[in-house]
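USER: Write out one fold?

ASSISTANT:
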Amino acid sequence: MTKTKHLLTNKLAGDFNQSTSKQTESGTGQEKNRLAAINQCFLKFDVNPDLNIKLLTDLCGELLAGDYAFYSRLNQNMLHSLGSWHAPPNFNHIGKPDGHICYDVIKQGSNEIFFLSHVQSSHYKQTDPNVHLLNIHTYVARAVKRADVAIGALCVIYTRDFTPSEDDKNIMGIIASAIGVEEERKQYQEELRFKSQLLDEANDIIWAHDLKGNIIYCNKAASRSHGYSYEEFKSLNLRDLDTPEFANLIEARMQELLAKGELAFESAHFRKDKTILPVEVHARVIELQGKKIVLAINRDITERKNAEEKIYYMAYYDPLTNLPNRWLIKNQLVQELARARLYQQRLAVLFLDLHRFKLTNDTLGHSVGDRLLQGVADRLRSCLRKGCFIGRMGDDEFIIVLPNISYIEDATGMAGEVIQTLQLPFNIDGHKLHVNASIGIAIYPDHGDNPEILLKNANNAMYYAKDHGGSGYQVCTSHMNDNFSRSLILENSLRQVLKRQEFILYYQPQVDLKTGQIIGMEALIRWQHPDLGMVAPDEFISLAESTGLIGPIGEWVLKTACVQNKAWQAAGLPPFLMAVNMSARQFRQRDLVHTVDEVLKETGLNPAWLTLEITESVAMQNTQNIIAALKQLKEMGVQIAMDDFGKGYSSLSHLRQLPIDKIKIDRSFTWDINTVNGANIMKAAIAMGKSLNLRVLAEGVENGEQLEFLKTHGCDEAQSYLFSRPLPAIEVIKLLDKYQVTKK
């Protein structure tokens, strides 16, 4: 017996056997044989209902000993043919359709048999030419119904006169019912094929699986999207498809699905080639043939995931270096700190800053600067150990996090390795670039227990390393944090200092070594802080430059010094030069010359009594622009002095290009006069200035021996505590009297 025998057909055969059991026990041998033939027919049933209907139709003709047997659906042609058969007065039938059209018995779905005998009479020959053609004498028909609605007729034709018996009626009724069941199965299969075709044409991935995860059905999209054939896909289990992270959730999700009946979630599948297919799953439990199965509709969400990943990347990664940005660094640091607390581990945060990176951008362009940052990022990656991660905080700052360290040396060792790696030159567009970096180190839990404090302390340690020589690393200390707390107070106060008028100027004399007379004053800024007391410029000038406040502060110094010099002249003192320091940022301002001109006009000071001091390192930057600005100032009558001479790398040829009037030799050279090398360097510096017709001033003169050396070798001026410490304006008058500077 075929495995696919329809259940309803089995039931029908069983009902027939049960209903005729008594009859067959006492019936004739012929009856038993006819019933056995029907049973044998059922055993031959195929999955194809049309074949089964053909078997039943042939069996009916055989059992009723007809010449022809056929089954016909109630289509228009059949209705038209039967409609021409009007019952004559001698119409023989079983049932009572007397006076009706013949096919009414069929069309109305009667359980009675309709038959005509003596069909060869002229009446039927005229209404249906087939009567003569087929030599029909008797016509027997039985309605075939599906769900109690007539859908066709089972017909047996005789070439002789024939009257069906009650047994014939039962046999024909059973076979007609069996055909009706097969019609039902045919309709079910057609609907199933139609629905299956709809599912196959769906873009979504659809499959069904049992409660153990075995696939029992899939549509074309399922096999196509996963790269399997239909048969291959049906042999899979969910564990063969889900990626490991989702495969571990299968049992828990199955329990939740059985409890709720339906469930929606995201998952990821392996394709046959082991690539990943992200999906959104809507699963539902249904019951089929008494068994619970799961129908799953999976939607490919690759595009959505790609969009989400792009958005995530834009939010949490630096597009230039492909490193995590500050937000992702903080998120990762939160997770690592939680792990460190749980397992009582130590963790290190390394804050790295590149030296003078802005100079690279300004001189070589941002394209070179960007490629330099990318090269730095690549080298940092090469230094990473397992479990560590790096990120870019912004500009030229990077973060390295070292989880689970045993000793501080683990962090300092990494810092040393990074610095050494970065010291190798970078070759970019024909430029050989050297990079120096400072690294600050903060350790959890020693220097903080949250990301903000650790990053702040590592940043403070980095600045400490940078201020103490650079190209090194520094571990955070409590003393360092005290200093940075002071720096933070100064930075916050600096923004209000001009408004509160907390700056004052002190003045230190510059003495002519030949005459011993005071010939100039250098204006030196001081900050009278309301809480911290007197603050030296070394503490706040760098803050002013980094915050961009050096511009307005420098302008205040220039204007105040010019006003004071003009006031002394108005008081009758002989005129002398007022020296004012200019920062690198001020010289990069395009309106510097205009600002100086406006201050001189506003204060009424003759430009000849103003000296602007520029450091040697500033003069070496962007030389052409610096020279142009200096020439314009010289044309106004302002004098120019080069401060800290000897600390930079000025050559004689470079000095010749600069329109300067004076060089100020750095104090470090004065302090070394008592050594042979120091004395020779000082003599060379003085000689260089003289060869260029420049006046030479020495700073840091501490004793008479140094003073005599300078006089002997032709130094023109000196400025140091040996003559006077810097004084407020009110005390300058007394100093001038000491040096016999009298009023006019």
Notes: DSSP finds 33 helices and 26 strands in the chain.
